[in-house]
Amino acid sequence: MNKKEYITLAGVFVLVFFLVSCAKPPTEEMNNAVTALTRAENDADAVTYAGNVLVRARDTLAQMHIEAEAKRYDAARALAAEVISAADKAIADGRAASERARSEAANLVSSLKTPLAETEAALKAARGVQKIKLDFNALTREFEQARSEAGEAEQSLLAGNYQNAREKALNVRSSLGGIDIQISDAVRAASRKQ
After folding, report:
1. Please, which contacts does 64-68 make with residues 24 or more away whose CB atoms are closer than 8 Å?
2. Which of 97, 129, 162 is the last residue of a domain?
3. Residue 2 region, left (φ>0) first, then alpha (ψ -120 to 50), else beta?
4. Which of 4, 69, 79, 112 is in the most buried spot, having the most CB atoms within 10 Å?
5. Span of 47-56, 128-137, 168-177 with lowest mean pLDDT
6. pTM higher than 0.85, yes or no?
7. Structurally, how many domains does the chain consist of?
8. What is the pLDDT of residue 14?
């Protein structure tokens, strides 16, 4: 190598050293990532419906800090952007899932009125069937429990507890179905005896 090449090579080393020594951590981007994740972790819908996305964002945030401590600032900067993106996705996914859950719960709760009325009418009609073998007291208690649970489902829906509203509405449907089957079977058995 000649003197000119040494000077050029030395200049490159000095420039690289200067750039490496002057590189600063992406503090603003990292702070924005922490803020975005905190916002998502405080969003009830994101926590309830997009927990897996939040876990990924937390893991990415931890990796971002590791990269920053190792002075791999470009990697830390890229990971900060991923954290922000994941946090925003968790919020958006949470809102969408919450809306679907609300809609499903509202449909289930509102669909209980007809089966409640039909089961109540069937229970009253069964009382008029001669020779029917039914424990009307037990069925009436079961029906009243179903009616009460339907009211609780409606209250849960109004309170924004969509999962609870859905579960209660499904329980009511199941209870009413069980009562209807018992009435139907007893009426058939009584009509065979006549």
Report:
1. 64/30, 64/33, 65/30, 68/25, 68/26, 68/30
2. 97
3. beta
4. 79
5. 128-137
6. no
7. 2
8. 45
